[in-house]
Each structure stands twice: as C-alpha cells, then as structure tokens.
Amino acid sequence: MASRNVLLIFKSNIMYKPVIYRLARDFDLIFNILEAKILPRREGRILLELRGDDETIEKGIKFLQDHQVVVELLADKVWREDDLCVHCGACTGLCPTEALSLSRPELKVLFDVQKCVACGMCGLVCPFGAMKDVTLFDPFAEGRAEEK
Ligand code: SF4
Ligand code: SF4
C-alpha cells in the first residue's frame, strides 16, 4: 500500500465544503489528518496522509483539485539544506514525530520527510537555518512575520 502526505489548501470560498470524506466514500482511500489550521475568512490548511494504491491516490488528488482544492506534496514543500546542517542534534529533541533523528554510532541527524508534519519547531531552533519551509503549520509564524 502506498502512502503520501499532501498539503491541502482551501481558499475561503470552499473552506467549509465537505470534500475530504469523499476520499473514503468514493475512492476507498484511507486518510489520516496529521495537522490542520483554519484562518477564518482567509484559508484552511490540512496536512493529510493518504493511503491506498498509487492510481487511486492520484484519482483522489485529481478529485480534490477538480473541487478547487490546492494540493501539494509535502515532500516538495519541506526539505533540509544538507550543506547547512552540521548535525548538532538541537532539532531532534523537539521534533514531535521523530522525522529528525540521530543515527548511532554515526551521530548523523537523519531527516525523514514522510514523518514530518511541518510544525516548524526545528526551524525555530536550527542555528543555521537548514530546515526549509517547515512553518506551514507553525502557529507563531504569522506573529513573527508581523513583528518584522
Ligand atoms: S517541521 Fe521539523 S520539527 Fe516539525 S515535524 Fe517536521 S522535521 Fe519535525
Ligand atoms: S538543528 Fe539544524 S544544524 Fe542542527 S542537526 Fe538540526 S538541522 Fe542540522
């Protein structure tokens, strides 16, 4: 069974449309909501893990897009700039999903994007800015942007 983490963006005009349940009903896909954030009258963001066979996942994604939902693969949005990472390990203790983990005995920090929920915690602590675009669901990101 294949699995893909996808970021769904609902613009305000479709924010409350009930489309996600149809992934299960019409496409027999298993979905798991990993994270969600609603900005009233602006947009809603949902990070969804989709499970099924590849073809059905593609059909489900097409269905969402046909209903005006913006669908992005999380793996295309979030990444680590490996040249900037010095494997200090500061991020591993904060990562809630163990997407960042320390390998032993090499003492290298590994990043598994499939486990990442884009909470932004690693972005807050990394002294070198190695973690990129991890603030998709960071509740403090907007406040920081307004302070600048
Ligand atoms: S954004 Fe960083 S801390 Fe949050 S889940 Fe992803 S890797 Fe872990
Ligand atoms: S905090 Fe930054 S430099 Fe340190 S291990 Fe994590 S990503 Fe690498």
UniProtKB/TrEMBL annotation:
Gene3D superfamilies according to UniProt: 3.30.70.20, 3.30.70.260
Molecular function GO terms recorded: 4 iron, 4 sulfur cluster binding; metal ion binding
Keyword field contains RNA-binding: no
Repeat found in the keyword field: yes
UniProt keywords, alphabetically: 4Fe-4S, Electron transport, Iron, Iron-sulfur, Metal-binding, Repeat, Transport
PROSITE patterns for the chain: 4FE4S_FER_1, 4FE4S_FER_2
Name of the featured protein: 4Fe-4S binding protein
Organism name: Desulfomonile tiedjei
Lineage of the species this protein comes from: Bacteria, Pseudomonadati, Thermodesulfobacteriota, Desulfomonilia, Desulfomonilales
